[in-house]
Every structure is written in C-alpha cells, then in structure tokens.
Amino acid sequence: MAQVPDRDTCLELLGRMCLIRRFEEEAGRQYQRAKAGGFLHLAIGEEATIVGTTSVMREDDYLIGTYRTHGHALARGTPADAIMAELFGRETGTSGGRGGSMHIFDAERRFMGGYGIVGGNLPLAAGLAFASKYRDEDTVTVCMFGDGASNTGNFGETMNLAALWELPVVFLVENNLYGMGTSIERHSAVTNLSHKAEGYGIEGERIDGMDVLEVRDRVSAHLEEVRTKGRPSLVEAFTYRYRGHSAADPEIYRDKSEVEEWRQKDPIENFIKVCVEDGVLSEEDVQSARDEADETVEAAVEFADRSPEPPLESLYEQLYVVGETMGWYAVDERSPEPHRGELGEDAPEKARDLAETVADRESEIERQHRPGVRE
Q1: What CA–CA distance (Å, rounded) separates 315 from 178?
Q2: Residues 6+ apart with CB under 8 A from 331
Q3: Alpha carbons 45 and 247: distance in angstroms, whole number
Q4: CA nearest to 43, candidates 64, 74, 15, 12
Q5: Handedness of CA 158, 163, 167, 172 (dihedral sign)
Q6: What is the distance between the alpha carbons of residues 266 and 46, in angstroms, rounded to a whole number?
Q7: Contacts of 342 by beta carbon, 8 Å cutoff, 6+ apart
Q8: pLDDT tens for each residue of 2-16
Q9: Residues 6+ apart with CB under 8 A from 132
Q10: Which long-range contacts (CB under 8 A, 24 or more apart) does 30-35 make?
Q11: pTM, entire model
C-alpha cells in the first residue's frame, strides 16, 4: 500500500467512498420500491477505483464512463440530489429526468456521461482527447470501462487511433472479473487486460483497484506521463462488484463464497483500518464520515421525491440541436406549403387551420363513440 496521505486528504477520500457506498445502497432500495425506473447497475465494492482515480484528476480533465457511473459523478462533485432525481425521472435530475441511471451527465464538472452501450464511450473519449490536443491544452481524458468492453470492436479501433494520433487519454479498465454474467476466463483470451493494447503501442499496468491509495499513486503517475508526453496509456484496476451486474441479476454464475472472500478486501473498511492504525484518523472521524453520507443521501431521496416530473408536452424537446446552418430534419406536409417540422410556430396559417380542423373532427368522432351518446 502507498504511503498514507495527510488527514484532510484521508477525510476527503473516506467521505467520498462512504457517500458512494451509501448512495448505491439507497439507489438499490429505491429501485425495489419502483421509485427508480429503467435499469440500475451498482458499483458497490468498486469505490476505491472510482475515488482513487478522480481524486488525482484536475478539474479541467475530462471523465467518461459507461452505465455504472453514479459514483463517478459523485466523485467529480455532482450533487447527490441531482443524481437521485435523475434516477427518479424528475425534472431536477442531471439530464432532466430523461436519462435515468445509465445516462448521468454533468458537463460543468467535465463528467461527460454514462453510456448504455458496452464500449460505446471509447471512441467518444478519443474525440474528447483529440479536442484537447487540437486546442493545444494539457487536459487529459480518463475513460473508464468494464472488462467486457475490452472485447468490442470499439476497443481495438479506439486504441489504434489514440496511439496513431498520440491522444492524451488514460484508458482505465474496471476489471471486476465478469462481463455481465460471464467470467473473464470465458470471455477474454487474454485475462491480463493491461496487455490488451500493447499491439497498438499502448503500454499498460495492472493495479489493485481495491486499494484507494495505490489507485491514487499509479493513476497520478499515468496522468502525469500522458500530460507531459501526449501519448495514451492503459490502466487495469483489478476490482470487484459485490452486487450483480444489474439490480435484476440473479447472480447464479458465481458462488457466495467468492463474494464473501472479496468482501474481506472491502476498500472502505481496509482504508479505515490503515488510517486509524496510522493515527491519521480517529474512530470519531470515521463515524462522522458515515453520518454525513447518511444525511446527504436521505436528503437526496427527499429532494427527488419532492421534485416534479417532466411535463408530457416536453417529451420531444431537446432531441436535436437546431441551428441556422443545418438542413431540415423533418417536414410538415399538412398544407400546400411544406415547412420545417421542428419549427411549428413558423407554420403557414393554412397549416394551423387544417390542424385545428382535424383536431375538432377527431374530438367529434370521440364524442360520438362514448357510451350513451346517440346521433
């Protein structure tokens, strides 16, 4: 284990990990209560990888993840209120309640989102890194993805372009040993994923993803190297998820004894033990961090419950970027003079008249078919 840092840093690391753990536990509970819709993928057990990585990133660096990213957003500073509201599908969520668990997004903090497509974030990370290089900035993109994504075509294509163009990106594989329900031995011919990009000229390193201090130490070194040399690198964080692939996962593919064995390596409890034994933190500090996480998450649930749902009429808003330089993506042909479908307010008067006539006719037909209504 790397050297224990100062008290303030330890408190910050512990607080973030406790918050992520407590948030994930509560998200699972709210999902069972049918408050959180869609799919839910929990990262309980992977807190050290998340917090260790984000704690050494600069504010202007970019972070992009996949679909297990509540913790990534929390670690970058996104308020728990907004993330929980997004899970609840509320207007105050990070994506206005339209994305849900798999699509948390916070551009202000340069967390460029979670994505439901396995490996779909890899080429996007290359694009972010290319933008940094194009603008002659020294910002780095950190792309976090699972072991299963290392088998996708996007992985090979992105590694090739990142190496070819010397893009400032750190690819971080959160290797939790399973691609959904398939163990790494069954889904990957090369099980040491730190070697998977060597054929493209990208060096890799395997680290202990359950040790927040080792993650900090090694990811910091990779960030510095990429920032100064302008070449990509790959880090494999060997970690584990204590819950299933998703909230609906029956987990019939692994033994309970295996999960229990990994629980002995709990990243939060082991970090607490080291800090207390080293005299950097006290038991009171630890309890205070847990209590603060509890209060923050409880408040987030209350906030999400109070928040309004998006109005139905907003269903088709913000689907496209509409600008003067783009062509028509939709055409309204309800009148002799076709007009742009996305700009209903600019429709000719004849089109509006026809629309009102049709609406009146439909209302009359509906009225006539109601029980008890006769001609």
Answers
A1: 36
A2: 338, 339, 340, 341
A3: 15
A4: 74
A5: positive
A6: 9
A7: 320, 322, 328, 329, 330
A8: 889 999 999 999 999
A9: 62, 138, 139, 140, 141, 168
A10: 30/84, 30/87, 30/88, 30/301, 31/87, 31/247, 32/247, 35/87, 35/88, 35/304, 35/305
A11: 0.84
Six-digit token string for 229:
């040399």
Are the C-beta atoms of residues 162 and 128 closer than 8 Å to each other? no
Q: What is the pLDDT of residues 219-265, one digit of tens each?
A: 999 999 999 998 999 999 999 999 999 988 889 999 999 999 999 99
Task: Measure Cα distances from 69 to 39, 87, 106, 273, 288 in Å.
Answer: 12, 12, 11, 27, 25
Residues contacting residue 217 through CB under 8 Å, at least 6 positions apart: 2
Domain boundaries, the chain: 7-306, 320-368
Distance, in Å, from the CA atom of 22 to the CA atom of 297, rounded to the nearest integer, reads 7
H-assigned helices in 230-329: 256-263, 267-277, 283-306
Phi, psi dihedral angles at 308 (to 5 degrees): -80, 155
Cα(310)–Cα(349) distance, integer angstroms: 30
CATH H superfamily, domain 7-306: Thiamin diphosphate (ThDP)-binding fold, Pyr/PP domains (3.40.50.970)
* Whole-angstrom distance, CA of residue 211 vs CA of residue 266: 9
